[in-house]
Amino acid sequence: MFGNLGEMAGLMKKAKDMKANIAKMKEEIAASEFYGTCPDNKVSVVISGDFQVRRIKIAPDAAGNTEMLEDAVKTAVNSAVSSAQCNIREKMQEITGGLNIPGLF
Question: Class for domain 2-96, per CATH?
Answer without folding.
Answer: alpha beta
